[in-house]
Amino acid sequence: MSAEYTPSSALVVVDMQHDFADPAGSLYVRGGETIVEPIAAEIAAAREAGATVVYTQDWHPEHTPHFATDGGLWPVHCVAESAGAALVPGLPVDGPLLRKGTGTEDGYSGFSEVDLATGATKGTDLSTILDEAGVMDITVVGLAGDWCVKATAIDGVHLGYSVTVPLRLTRFVELQEGDTQRAIAAMREAGVAVLDEASS
Ligand code: VGL
Ligand code: ZN
Questions:
Q1: What is the domain-level CATH number for residue 22?
Q2: Is 64 a domain residue?
Q3: Which of 55, 98, 186, 189 is the most buried (most CB within 10 A)?
Q4: Would you say residue 27 lies in a domain?
Q5: Which residue's CA lies nearest to atom 6 of ligand 1?
Q6: Which residues fall within 8 angstroms of residue 81, CB to CB, at 6 or more apart?
Q7: Chain-wide mean pLDDT for the chain?
Q8: How high is the pLDDT of residue 65?
Q9: Does 15 participate in catalysis according to the annotation?
Q10: CB within 8 A of 59, min separation 6: which ones?
Q11: How many independent structural domains does the chain possess?
Q12: Does residue 146's CB lie within 6 angstroms of at least one atom of ligand 1?
């Protein structure tokens, strides 16, 4: 069953991009391709209920401290304007699209970015968009469960939203063994309603 959407809820679709969701992508998240259709159905359900639907897109410069080639953690992925950064086909994109990681910023939340040059954290437009729409409850889906979905969900709780993450609609990088379980535990600890595959 899907979350119950209302006009005061929002579906936040995180980073459903070629590099993450396609087995040929440069930072493929295992099983990412299997959640495209279920998320498309969720978008339709949210729309039908009059909920807000917003999208995030990882969108990096060719050189960023986010990439292993520049001292960071990740293979080069989601470079601005590249095919790998495109949202996957099969998802209707009919709401605001927020790009993140576009400069020297790092961080994984759709709500905030950390400027690595200064260490300063600044907010994105996401909470403004949600607040202008009168949103109280958000459902966060997409990729990856142990990075951007987790960070967005936990930030959402801190900002006062009631936050749900259905495990049916996310997949995990599992860079280190146990990351999936640790991410789920961290979200639950923060107050996120993490719905098991069966109950979501
Ligand atoms: C992400 C790793 C690097 C994500 C983005 O969207 O979860 N993960 N950049
Ligand atoms: Zn990234």
A1: 3.40.50.850
A2: yes
A3: 55
A4: yes
A5: 148
A6: none
A7: 94
A8: 87
A9: yes
A10: 78, 80, 85, 99, 100, 101, 102
A11: 1
A12: no
Residue 21 is part of which domain span? 9-195
Pairing of strands 52-58, 9-14: parallel
Mean pLDDT of 55-78: 94
Measured in residues, the chain has a length of: 200
* Residue 15 Cβ < 6 Å to ligand 1: yes
Match 């495209």 to its residue by tokens.
36
117 pLDDT tier (thresholds 50, 70, 90): confident
Active-site residue (options: 15, 19, 137, 146): 15
